[in-house]
Amino acid sequence: MSQAYLSIQSIHKTFGSFTALKEINIDIQKNEFICLLGPSGCGKTTLLRIIAGLEKPTHGRITVGGKDITTLPPAKRNFGMVFQSYALFPNLTAYQNVAYGLQGRHFSKKEIDEKVREVLSLVDLTHIHDRYPSQLSGGQQQRIALARAIVLSPDFLLLDEPLSALDAKVRVKLREQICELQDKLGITTVMVTHDQEEALTMADRIVVMKNAEVMQIGSPEQVYNEPSSPFVADFIGSINFLGEDQMNMAVRPEHIRIAAYGSMQGIPAIVKHIEFRGAFYRVLLQPVVDFSGAEEGQQLTVDVSAHVAQQLKLKRYVKVTIEFPQEKLINFGKEAVVSL
Ligand SMILES: Nc1ncnc2c1ncn2[C@@H]1O[C@H](COP(=O)(O)OP(=O)(O)OP(=O)(O)O)[C@@H](O)[C@H]1O
Ligand SMILES: [Mg+2]
Q1: Is the separation of the CB atoms in 222 and 210 below 8 Å?
Q2: CATH number assigned to the domain covering 6-232
């Protein structure tokens, strides 16, 4: 890999006796889209605020393009930021909100007008430029916030849960728009989220955090298919842990093979519960020794396509045979023995 553009080096942060970040190291390439993903309180916002200069690290350093910016005040760091709540000026129109950051700089009136019009068109909001925030939907307000963040052509973009206040449909739409915009402008972006689907669909690489620490850094495919720990496996997507309480092997619900009882080699199981999920069914299965009722091992979650579910006439108490394809088993390192 080439030298990192935005480099987070041994960043440590304590608030009194509480440790919010422990020795964080992340190297971010130019134009990369990074998601910081983790449960509430793991330190995502604190790390973003340290990158922005809004919070001082206890120790460690941050460099941009090789230059140490650890002690630079926020105003001297060239970044754009979007927060969870829209934080627009309520008394200014969409246009004026975007223009605000350009005023008092060395731009002429004409230059300001051109820049504002350009970014408003980028976020597809030219037609509502004269509305006030209270006259805009949540999604539109977030797009204005985004326009405001990019109008100064920042070196990097910091987004703290920019989509979490929006409803599901708008969120998906805006997800696509942010990715498109990021791609078009080629702007290095760090986005905080605790939504694993958002991270999987948007990021070039995901930084999975837990309790102030980085657990894994990798592409969406890597963290999903090759999670480095049971925590990551469980946090990103659904997972079945295999074996008593060792948690050293696991398999995703969509990777367990399921067939009519006795139609293939495998483990007999009974359907305990079945949930319709639109494109597929999520099925809870109880492996059994035989059908006298003796249960064996823990219950398993299996995702079955609607087509297969219909073929097998899946419903409660139906008997099936299941199998774990060896190549789909996730091994967390130790010598693993699958015992059901
Ligand atoms: N100024 C502060 N003083 C004391 N503790 C703080 C301060 N800011 C953050 N913390 C603590 O640091 C931890 C990490 O907070 P942070 O806001 O970074 O979490 P987060 O991962 O962004 O969580 P969420 O998903 O809920 O936004 C929390 O336990 C929080 O209470
Ligand atoms: Mg936060």
Answers
A1: no
A2: 3.40.50.300
